[in-house]
UniProtKB/TrEMBL annotation:
The lineage of its organism: Eukaryota, Metazoa, Chordata, Craniata, Vertebrata. Residues 31-132 form the BTB domain. The gene is Kctd4. InterPro entries: BTB/POZ_dom (IPR000210), KCTD4_C (IPR045740), SKP1/BTB/POZ_sf (IPR011333), T1-type_BTB (IPR003131). This is KCTD4 protein. Residues 1-23 are annotated as: Disordered. It comes from Pomatostomus ruficeps (Chestnut-crowned babbler). One of its GO terms (biological process) is protein homooligomerization. Pfam families: BTB_2, KCTD4_C.
């Protein structure tokens, strides 16, 4: 009799445990929401979509706003499915994080307004305004010879981040060519100044072991870096020397 009673108690405990586990599974599944945004499916948690009270998505989830369903029973929202990725990432992270080179600020601002996310809308507009100001300011990088200021190269572009990238690339290439002689050039905010330049060969050392950097090599690095970043050479600002290779300035634009 004791064995039977013990067996029944175990069975009851298992049923109770299974019931609790089933309830937890059911609760977890109901916390997952699938959205069909312009044909793109997104699966996220209920707490993510309801993070901002009075937003469009919070209203849908809590029943304040009526939303149609697609053929599979998912919420259907007739908006830009690709841009919704950034809306959802904002809800998850609580801040605006966009990929490098993102150029759809105006469209994203419109999406943020539709979804009634004021904080996101303001963040996008602020980013857009900063880019507009930066695009009107031509940024430059000057590469010079400290012994002969007539020798050198000026690089112009309306994208500050590109100037920073090309500056880093030229410094990296120069250091590798200097082979342990970093004192042969100095770097400031917009100027890279070398001790000496030559106009031919691939780099050499003078008799006193001073490194001499090839200007054409650095010009080639600048052009290749620009092309890889999606920029194009608008024009040579000084075409008096007959070709881009011999010009003293390059102007890049997206």
């Amino acid at each position: 009799m004791e064995r039977k009673a013990s067996r029944r108690e175990n069975e009851c405990e298992e049923k109770t445990g299974n019931s609790e586990s089933s309830e937890l599974d059911k609760e977890y599944k109901t916390s997952l929401i699938t959205l069909n945004v312009g044909g793109y499916l997104y699966i996220t948690q209920k707490q993510t979509l309801t993070k901002y009270p009075d937003s469009f998505l919070e209203g849908i989830i809590n029943g304040r706003i009526m939303c149609p369903f697609d053929a599979d029973g998912h919420y259907f929202i007739d908006r830009d499915g690709l841009l919704f990725r950034h809306i959802l990432n904002f809800l998850r992270n609580g801040e605006l994080l966009l990929p490098e080179g993102f150029r759809e600020n105006q469209l994203l601002a419109q999406e943020a307004e539709f979804f009634q996310l004021k904080v996101l809308s303001e963040a996008v507009k602020s980013r857009w305004e900063k880019e507009q100001i930066a695009s009107r300011e031509t940024t430059f990088l000057e590469i010079t010879d400290s012994h002969d200021r007539s020798q050198g190269l000026r690089i112009f572009c309306n994208a500050p981040e590109f100037i920073a990238k090309i500056k880093s690339r030229i410094v990296l290439v120069s250091k590798s060519r200097l082979d342990g002689f970093p004192e042969e050039f100095s770097v400031s905010s917009n100027i890279i100044q070398f001790k000496y330049f030559i106009k031919s060969e691939n780099g050499t050392r003078l008799e006193d072991n001073t490194f001499v950097c090839t200007l054409e090599t650095l010009k080639f690095e600048a052009i290749m870096t620009a092309l890889k970043c999606g920029f194009r050479l608008l024009t040579s600002l000084d075409c008096s020397r007959g070709s881009i290779v011999h010009s003293d300035a390059l102007h890049f634009i997206k």
